[in-house]
Amino acid sequence: MNATFVITEINSKKTGFLLEDNSLVRACSLYNESLLGNVYSAKVVNYVPSINAAFLDAGTGDYLYYSLNDNTNHIFLKHGNTEKVCVGDELLVQIEKEPIKTKKGVATSDIELSGKYFILNRRNEVGISHKITDADVRKSLKSMTEKALEEYNVRFYEEGKNLSLGAIIRTSAEFVSEDELKLELNNLVHIMNGIVDYGVHSVVKKLIYSPDRSIRNELIDIKNKQKYDSFNIITDLEEEYNLLSVDFGSDIKLYNDTMVALHKVFNLEEKLKKAFDRFIYLKSGGSIIVEPTEALTVIDVNTGKAIKGKNTEKSFLKINKEAAEAIAKVIRLRNISGIIIIDFINMKEIESIKELLDYLKKQLDKDEVKVTFVDMTPLGLVELTRKKEAKPFTLQDFL
Q1: How many CB atoms lie within 10 A of CB 107?
Q2: Fewest beta carbons within 10 Å, which of 29, 88, 107, 353?
Q3: Secondary structure tally for the chain: helices H, strands E
Q4: What DSSP string describes 29-61?
Q5: Is the pTM of this model over 0.70?
């Protein structure tokens, strides 16, 4: 599979568009106002024993949900005599999930910092990407990381800091020198230490740290995953080209044709409008209908005028597979999360159903966000869940 990342401006909105084999699957605003990953000094304003959770005021405009079942290793900035979290306490927390519709944002004490080769956290253990398969390499990387973190943890313990750092080793670390890995790990630990120090001396309800959300990090992450046969970047924004050419060299091209706008070359406006329409028409003549509700998203697959000939089972399978591919792309592009119910065209043969579900799972595996295939119900409805992190997108976010 080949991929192209187009960085351009449509209606004064600078956006990055990811196309896989010329099919639009992701759109990323260059001006990301997300709260996700931000670290705040927050005050406990309420405790609800029935759900064992606290609500925090971090100055974000609404209270944050803080589960005391999921968070036991608190970073207290101000605390009473009891070991429990109490109203009036001040905590250092990170936004784990953004507020979505009527649901409040979720805060966590497990602060994570992402780098090219590591994800630093507070779990006091070292994990490694399953995509690194060489046993000797896995052993070497884990040993090096554990040794480095042990030295840091001893130092922080002596300084009286409750950090207990751990890390996840990313796939991109496999072919990198030990010196470069140690350099990034040291930088991440330095940032984590700085966050805690700043938090301790800051006033409450203050933004302590915000991750770099530039398009550069998005692109580095895509390239490091090495999931495409070829990956190219093209932009008509000279400023972005100058910034990115340092990291991507020949992989990035500057488009300077004044006759035809870059977004028209890739037909981006039309692709966005089609992907965000309630009805999405398939090449076979079938269609899918996307219906977001407060509780879940329902997607219905229709045959339309696609049925030809006597072998309806074969035709249904063909339409369903085309719909499965389209649905996986729509979920990514719209950032649909939570519970997703898909009503495919009913098929009678077990082999056809199995082939469809296997194909759907393969398409869902392409998603950057974790998607879980739950089951197919007795009524033939496919149940999925997609991890909630940020708000779903609308067409107005890009046009």
Answers
A1: 27
A2: 88
A3: 8, 22
A4: ESS----TT-EEEEEEEEEEGGGTEEEEE-SSS
A5: yes
